[in-house]
Amino acid sequence: MTQPTDIRRHHRAEHLRTALDLAAADVPALPLSGGKRPFGNCPACEKGACGDRPHMKAAGPCRCPQPCHGWAAATTNPAILTSPDWALAWQQAAAVAYHPGGAGLTVVDLDNTDAVTWARSTLPTTRAVPTTRGEHWIYRGAMQSANAVRPGVDIKSLMSYARWIGPGTGTMSDLPGVVRALVVKEPSPVRPGRLVVTVPALAGGGECRHRTPAYLERGVAMAEQRITEARSAVHTTVYRMFLAVLSAHGRCGCLTDTHIARLFTAAQAKGESHRHCTDAWANARTRLGL
Hints:
By secondary structure, the chain is α+β, with helices and mostly antiparallel strands. The chain contains nine helices and nine strands. 37% of the residues lie in helices and 13% in strands.
C-alpha cells in the first residue's frame, strides 16, 4: 500500500522535473510553498525587502541559503535548480512557478467566469490554460505587471511569477496593445496648487510649430528606448528623458496624451510607479517653467 509520505515525495520529485523541463525551454522556474508563495527563508527578504514584489526593485541574484527572492530567484540554470541549497525547498514544494517576463511572456490571469467572458469578447485569442477558477491567457511579449487592472484580471509578466499549471492549448499570439493599455492609468485629477500632468495638443490639431511630426516621433521613440535600456539609475533616466521631450516639445503643444502614455508605459515597465512618473513629469515641467 502506498503511504502518504511516498505520494508527497513523488509529487515533489515531479515538481523538480517540471522545473527542469521549463528551464530547458528557457522559462525561469522556482518552487512554491504550500501557500502557493515563493519561499522566504532569510530575514533580509521578509515582506518583499529583497525586491520580490512587482512594485519594488530587484536586489539582484539570490545569495541566501534558499531560493527566497520570489520571482527574482527563478532560473533556467539546472545546476542551481538541483543544487544542495535548493534541496530543502524542493522537499517542501507544493507547486512550481515561473517568471513570465523572464521568458518574454505575459500572463493575463482571469480569475473567474466573468473575467473569462470579458476576455473572449475583448482580447485576441491566444494560448489558454484552465485554472481552478478561470484561465491564464499567455501572450508572446513582456510588460509591466499589475494586479486588479479590472475585476478578476491580473497581469503577470516582469517582476512577477505565475503558477505553472500546464502548457495549455491554442496558438500563442503577440502581446496586443489592448493588454498593455490595461496598466496605463489615467492621469490623476488636477488638485489646487498642483501642476497639470498632460500637455494639450494644438487646438484643432496641427503640426508642431517648430519641429516636424517625424522629429517628434523620433524624439519620443528615443526616450522610450533609453528608458527601456536603462540598467541602473532608472529614476534619474526617466526624469531626464521626460525633461528632454518636454524641453523640445512642451511649449508648442504638439505632445498628446498618447505620447505621454508611451513614456509612462516605458517607465512603468522598468518598475516605476505611476505616482513616480507623474511626479517626474511635473518636476520636469517645473524646471522648464511650463
